[in-house]
TrEMBL record:
Residue intervals of the 3-hydroxyisobutyrate dehydrogenase-like NAD-binding domain: 168-281
Pfam annotation, one family: NAD_binding_11
Gene3D superfamilies: N-(1-d-carboxylethyl)-l-norvaline Dehydrogenase, domain 2 (1.10.1040.10), NAD(P)-binding Rossmann-like Domain (3.40.50.720)
Enzyme superclass (EC): oxidoreductase
Name of this protein: NAD(P)-dependent oxidoreductase
Organism: Fodinicurvata halophila
All residue ranges annotated as the 6-phosphogluconate dehydrogenase NADP-binding domain in the record: 5-165
């Protein structure tokens, strides 16, 4: 697929830098679509063609990337009027970079397969800065042949591209990745609140934790870079998105007849943060409401 034509739908917080890195790294023909004008203009400056509508981007592409907020948006783009299923053709590949419920992912893959389109779920992990730098971790659910076809493209946006299994398995791993992250951030918020109340300097606490067995990616990034300076900007991964992804984890647990009390606690804390008016802020903002119930 060395000369494949690429379509990219969704140029948001993560989608735009991913698109830019794949476009720049591959040198392939790109057609892009988004509802916002500014990212379209920036991609056009880099040589991408801007589609007037969904139908146009689907019809002009061999591989179609989706980078959307969540399941409802992915379902609409794939199954909606003039969407991927309606406008697509046999032999095309659809690569969903979004975080989407596992059952929906497998349903969409089945619907597309009936028309001869191949599908891979390829949700991304790590931060917005990692998306900018092309150092994401991407977890792929697909058959081995499709994974082999798309891995070189994904490698322009990521330092880790992992084949997690058949369709849906990428979403399983990503959802559980986020579940562990949310629970860890809650634990960090609780440690910060309790430590300060007990008389320990907040910076000393986190720096010392980073030298012991409590060290983690979440501590060094979400803890030290957001919680310590009390900096939770909009435009990063917001509380509303974290609630969505945590809900996906609980739905997955229910689907396999298991309980996840830690995830339930994390979801409760995220909802408390949203109720306090922090739905659009970077989700470690839950530290501001920890211990106040």
């Amino acid at each position: 697929m060395a000369q494949a034509r690429i379509g990219f739908i969704g140029l948001g917080v993560m989608g735009e830098p991913i698109c830019r890195n794949i476009l720049t790294g591959s040198g392939l023909d790109f057609t892009v679509f988004d509802l916002a004008e500014a990212p379209l203009e920036r991609m056009a400056e880099r040589g991408a063609r801007v589609a007037a509508n969904l139908c146009e981007v689907v019809e002009s592409s061999d591989i179609i990337f989706l980078s959307l907020p969540g399941g409802p948006e992915v379902e609409k783009i794939v199954l909606g009027e003039e969407g991927v299923l309606a406008s697509g053709r046999a032999g095309q590949c659809v690569i969903d970079l979004s975080t989407t419920p596992v059952d929906l992912t497998r349903e969409l893959a089945g619907r597309l397969a009936e028309k001869g389109l191949r599908f891979a779920d390829a949700p991304v992990a790590r931060t917005r800065q990692a998306a900018e730098d092309g150092t994401l971790s991407i977890m792929v659910g697909a058959d081995a042949a499709l994974f082999g076809d798309v891995r070189p493209l994904l490698a322009h946006a990521a330092t880790e591209v992992t084949h997690c299994g058949d369709v849906g398995c990428g979403q399983v791993v990503k959802i559980l990745n986020n579940m562990v992250l949310f629970e860890t951030v809650v634990a960090l918020a609780e440690a910060l609140t309790i430590g300060e109340a007990a008389g320990v300097d907040r910076t000393t606490l986190f720096e010392t934790l980073s030298k012991g067995s409590a060290d983690s990616f979440a501590l060094r990034n979400h803890g030290m870079k957001a919680m310590l300076p009390d900096n939770f900007p909009q435009g990063a991964f917001p509380t509303d998105y974290a609630i969505k992804d945590c809900s996906y984890a609980l739905a997955l647990a229910e689907h396999v007849n298991l309980k996840a009390p830690g995830a339930n606690h994390a979801l409760s804390m995220l909802k408390t943060a949203r109720a306090a008016g922090f739905g659009k802020e970077y989700f470690p903002v839950l530290a501001r409401v920890t211990g106040k119930d």
